[in-house]
C-alpha cells in the first residue's frame, strides 16, 4: 500500500466527518501526514484544519479537501495559503493560542511528530508549543515517530498516543535553517544592545544574523528565556556565558542546534516547554534576573508602534511572542528593545503610518536601536518620543511625510 497508504488508513479511523484537526507546528511539523490527511479529509467531508507556525516549506496539503483552514500563528510556509485566501490567519499573540485552542478552535484530534527517549517513552521533539496543552486537556493525539528529531521536550512522557508510523529522512528530520553571517550593520546594532544587558540578565532573542551578532558582542553571563532557540544559544554555551538550562517553546536552527538540544534532553535538561510557561507574561516579568527582550520589526511609526506582520497586504511575518515578551520586559526591571535597520530596500523603516497592523503597542517599547544609534524612550512623553525617533533616523533616510 505504501507509506502514504498506511498513514491514510490509520488516519481514516480517527478523522470523522465534520471534525476539526490540528496539525502540530514548528520545525518538527509532521510533513509525512499532510498528503494522507488531505486524502482522508476529502473522503470524510467537512473537515476543518488548524495550523500553527509553519517556518519551513508549505506542507503538501490539498486546500480543497478541507471545509476551513485557519492558522493561529502563520509563518513562511503558510504565506501562500493566507495570501490566496485559502487559509485565515487568526490574529493572536502566542500566549493567547492555548485559550483559542481550548475554546472556539478546540480540535478533535492533534497530529504531531514525537520521538522516543532512552527508555522508549514518547515525547514531543523539537517543540512543545501549544501541543502539550491540548494533550493535557485530553485531546486525542496521533503521531509519527521520528528517528532523527531531537529529544528536547522538558515535559513528562506522553501516554495514549496513537502511533501511525515511523519516519526518517526529509519527512522525519526537523526543518533546518542556516544563519547567515552578521554584517557590519548587524554588529553595530548588536554592540549597542549588548551594552544594555547586565550580568545575570535573562535574554530573549529570535533567529537570524542579529542574534548571532548579539551573542558575539556579549561579554557577561546570561540566561536565555525565549520563545525560540536558535544556533546562537550554542555559541553562547561554547563561550561559557550561558547560565542554566535555556527555556523556549521551539527549536529553530541547524543540525548543530538539534544535536546540542538532544544531548541536553537525554541528560534530563529539556529545553522546550509549553507556551503556557514560556510566554506567561507574569512569570517572565517576575522570575529572577531582569528580562532583556530583543525583538525586530518590519517597520515602526513615529509614536513607537511596531509592525512585524507584513506590509501592503503581505503575510510575510507573524505576531508570535513579540507582544508577550515586550510587555513582560517593560513590566519588570528589564528592557523591551526593538532593533531594526534604518532602511530596507531603499525605503525607511520609520514611517508616519504603519503599512500593516500594530503588533506591539508603543507603550511596550523601551529602547529602539538601529545601526545609527539608540533612542531611549523611557520616561518620555508622546511628543518627546516622536522627536527621539525622528532624530535617530534623521539624515540616514527621509521618513515618509
TrEMBL record:
Q: What is this protein called?
A: Acyl-CoA hydrolase
Any one GO MF annotation of this record: acetate CoA-transferase activity
Name the Pfam families for this protein.
AcetylCoA_hyd_C
* Keywords on record: Hydrolase
Q: Name one GO biological process term.
A: acetate metabolic process
Listed PANTHER family? ACETYL-COA HYDROLASE, ACETYL-COA HYDROLASE-RELATED
- What InterPro entries does the record tag this protein with? AcetylCoA_hyd_C (IPR026888), AcetylCoA_hyd_C_sf (IPR038460), ActCoA_hydro (IPR046433), NagB/RpiA_transferase-like (IPR037171)
Q: Which residues form the Acetyl-CoA hydrolase/transferase C-terminal domain?
A: 253-390
